[in-house]
Amino acid sequence: MMLMPDKEKLFEQIVQENRDRLYRICRACMPDPEDASDLYQEVLVKVWLNLHTFRGDAKLSTWLYRITLNTAILHRKQQGKNTEPLPRHIAELPDTTAESLQKQEQEVLLQKLHYCINCLEKQDRLIISLLLEEVSYKEIAEVLGLTVNHVGVKISRIKQKLAMLMEQHVNQETFTENSKKL
User: Fold this and answer.
1) Residue 164: partners with Cβ closer than 8 Å, 6 or more residues away
2) Are residues 69 and 111 in the same domain?
3) Same domain, 66 and 6
4) Are residues 110 and 146 in the same domain?
């Protein structure tokens, strides 16, 4: 068991150093920003409540990922929500500059990616979320209890699946836009 003379300071340090990373994982697991924020708060509560259980057997980041992913799984079960379809029309800002247009396109693409990630099976969502956080294959394997080789194979298949989902989504949008013109 880890000795913690000042639990609050340690917690603040952990949150400060991992805030963005943990939120991005929550966002990858929950496409709706409000749900992701709720999940993030639940993760922080669980980290606080379980801080005394961290023994240092694994890296702190591995322990945090496990808490985040397990909390996400429980959160989704409690919500009982199915994957919601991506809105057909994403609100667009007025076209003022090339830079803002590029940001808009990137945001739309990011929303589509989050949607497609949410369409994956649970374990695949978790793996790709960790990969997007630049977690090593070895650490992903440790978090999920898989071999490093298995993680590599899964990541290759997940990338193929995501590429197919993104292409289907683009083709579906093109079909919808073309049928509106007719």
Assistant:
1) none
2) no
3) yes
4) yes
